[in-house]
Specification:
There is one protein chain. It is built from 14 helices and 15 strands. It has 467 residues and is of the alpha/beta class. The strands form 3 sheets. It has a 9-stranded mixed beta sheet with strand order 3-4-5-2-1-6-12-8-13, with helices on both faces. Strands 7-14-9 form a 3-stranded mixed beta sheet. Strands 11-10-15 form a 3-stranded mixed beta sheet. The longest helix is centred in the first third of the chain and has 42 residues. The termini are far apart.
Length: 467
C-alpha cells in the first residue's frame, strides 16, 4: 500500500513532466516562429505575387459528400480568390443528397469526356466530368464514394496544375490565401513541397457572397470550445512543430502541395480514415528515404474558416474518427519511430504524437476510471492527486492563453477585450468536463479501431449566416 501511495504519484508526475515539457517546448518554438513571421511581414520588400508571370498554376480540390447546404457558398468563396492562374475542381464523392444537382443549377454544368489519365487514377470509378458554362475555371467530377483521400486522388489525376490546394466543402477562404501560400514555393522552388496554415471557426460569423464579412466568436458553447482548440492547435501547436522542423500534420481542410510529387508517391491512401496526417507522414518518409532535400512550411496569415459541429453526437463522431486515424497512422509508421534515419520526424514528432496525443489520452482515461476506486480503498492519498490535477489544468490553461495571445497579436482577429476575455474563459471551461469527455471519446475511437471500424460517419451541416 505504501509503495503504491509513493510510486504511483511519482510515475504520474514524471510522465506529466515529459509530456508537459514537450508541449512547452512546442509553444515556445511557436512564439519564436510567430515573431519571425510577423517581423518578416513588416520588413519584407514590396513584391506583388499577382504581377509575377512565373507563378505556378494551382488547382483547388473540393471533395464533397452530401454537402448540398454549403457547397454553393463554398464554391463562391473559392471563386473570389485573387490569383492569376487557378481552377476549382469539385469532386462529388458519391453524394446521396442533391450536391451535384445544386451545383448544376447554380453553375450550369456540361458533361465532358473523361480524360484517360483519370480513368487510371487510384480512386473509385468516375461517372462523369463536367465543365461549368457560367464559370470558366470550374470543373466537377462525379464519382462513386471512396472517402476524402480517394476524392483528392481524382483531382490530382485530373489536373494539369503544378500545385494543388486541398480544402473542405465547408471551408471559407479569403481572397489573398493562395497568393500568400504560394510565396514559399517561389522562394524555395526546388525544395518546397507542402505548405499549411491556420484555420478558424466560421460558426456565428457572417458570410456574404463567399466572403467572411463579420468574423465573430461562436455563440454555441461547443463551437466556442472548438475555437479554443483550433487556436491552440494551429497557432501554437503546428507553428511550433514547424519551427522545430517536426510538422507531420497539414490539415485536410487547407494545404498546398506539389502535384508531380504526390503522383510520384501514388497519391493519398484511399483506405485511410484520416488522410491528412497519414499523407503528411508518408510525404516526409518518401523524401527522406530518397535522400532528397525538401521543405515543409507553415504560415500564420492565410485566412481560412471552417464550420464545426454544434451538437454533441456529431462532434463525438468526428473526434472518434480523428483518434482512429491517429492510431492507424502510428501503427502504420511505427517502424520510423525512434529511427535516426528520419531525424526529428522519427526521433521527436512521431513519438510526441504517439505518446502525447495517443497513449497519454488512454492513460488519462484509465486514471479517471481508477482514481475514485483507489481513493475509496485508500490506495492513494487525495492530496498528491489534487496537486497533479490542479497543476495539469493550470499548465494547460496557461498554454492555451499563450496561444490566444499569439493569435490576437499576430492577426488581430479577435482583438476586442470582451472577445479575448471570452476566449480565456472558454479555455478554463475546456479543462473542466469537456477535456474529460473528449478523453473518453478518444477511448471509444480506440475500441472502434480495434474492431476494424472504418466508416466516415455523418457530418451534420447547418447553413452559414449570410447577409
Amino acid at each position: 500500500m505504501w509503495l503504491l501511495d509513493t510510486f504511483l504519484p511519482v510515475i504520474g508526475i514524471t510522465f506529466l513532466v515529459v509530456i508537459c515539457g514537450s508541449y512547452l517546448l512546442i509553444h515556445l518554438a511557436a512564439v519564436i516562429r510567430m515573431r519571425k513571421q510577423v517581423t518578416g511581414r513588416a520588413w519584407e520588400p514590396v513584391y506583388d505575387v499577382l504581377e509575377d508571370p512565373l507563378v505556378p498554376d494551382i488547382a483547388v480540390f473540393v471533395p464533397a459528400y452530401n454537402e448540398e447546404t454549403v457547397i454553393v457558398e463554398s464554391v463562391r468563396s473559392f471563386l473570389n480568390l485573387n490569383y492569376p492562374n487557378f481552377e476549382i475542381v469539385v469532386v462529388n464523392d458519391g453524394s446521396t443528397d442533391g450536391t451535384l444537382a445544386v451545383l448544376d443549377e447554380e453553375f450550369s454544368l456540361t458533361e465532358l469526356e473523361v480524360p484517360p489519365m483519370l480513368s487510371d487514377a487510384p480512386c473509385e470509378p468516375v461517372h462523369g466530368v463536367y465543365q461549368s458554362n457560367a464559370v470558366e475555371n470550374l470543373r466537377v467530377v462525379d464519382k462513386e464514394n471512396g472517402g476524402k483521400g480517394d476524392a483528392h486522388n481524382a483531382g490530382i489525376w485530373l489536373t494539369d496544375s503544378e500545385l494543388f490546394c486541398i480544402v473542405d466543402a465547408d471551408t471559407i477562404i479569403q481572397p489573398t490565401c493562395l497568393a500568400n501560400m504560394v510565396r514559399p514555393f517561389l522562394e524555395h522552388p526546388d525544395e518546397m513541397v507542402a505548405v499549411g496554415g491556420p484555420i478558424r471557426v466560421a460558426n456565428g460569423s457572417t458570410i456574404d457572397e463567399g466572403l467572411m464579412t463579420r468574423p465573430k466568436l461562436p455563440s454555441n458553447l461547443l463551437a466556442g470550445l472548438q475555437q479554443v482548440e483550433y487556436i491552440r492547435a494551429f497557432y501554437s501547436g503546428r507553428l511550433g512543430l514547424d519551427q522545430l522542423r517536426s510538422l507531420i500534420l497539414i490539415s485536410g481542410a487547407f494545404g498546398l502541395f506539389r502535384t508531380d510529387l504526390v503522383r510520384e508517391m501514388g497519391g493519398y491512401d484511399e483506405d485511410s480514415i484520416v488522410e491528412d496526417i497519414e499523407f503528411t507522414v508518408r510525404l516526409h518518409r518518401h523524401l527522406i528515404d530518397r535522400d532528397r532535400p525538401y521543405r515543409v512550411g507553415y504560415l500564420l496569415h492565410p485566412l481560412v474558416y471552417t464550420q464545426v459541429p454544434e451538437d454533441i453526437a456529431t462532434l463525438a463522431n468526428q473526434r472518434r474518427r480523428w483518434f482512429r486515424g491517429l492510431v492507424e497512422t502510428m501503427v502504420k509508421h511505427y517502424d520510423a519511430m525512434f529511427d535516426r534515419q528520419y531525424g526529428r520526424i522519427g526521433m521527436f514528432a512521431l513519438p510526441f504524437f504517439c505518446i502525447g496525443e495517443g497513449i497519454g489520452r488512454i492513460l488519462e482515461a484509465i486514471g479517471y476510471l481508477l482514481l475514485p476506486v483507489m481513493l475509496a480503498v485508500g490506495v492513494v492519498s487525495l492530496k498528491p492527486i489534487l496537486f497533479v490535477f490542479v497543476g495539469t489544468m493550470f499548465f494547460g490553461v496557461l498554454l492555451t492563453w499563450i496561444s490566444i495571445f499569439t493569435e490576437v497579436w499576430s492577426s488581430g482577429q479577435y482583438g476586442h477585450p470582451r472577445q479575448v476575455l471570452k476566449l480565456m474563459g472558454l479555455a478554463v471551461v475546456e479543462f473542466i468536463g469537456y477535456r474529460q469527455w473528449r478523453t473518453f471519446v478518444a477511448v471509444q475511437g480506440l475500441f472502434e479501431y480495434v474492431r476494424g471500424e472504418n466508416s466516415w460517419g455523418e457530418m451534420e451541416r447547418s447553413t452559414l449566416n449570410t447577409d
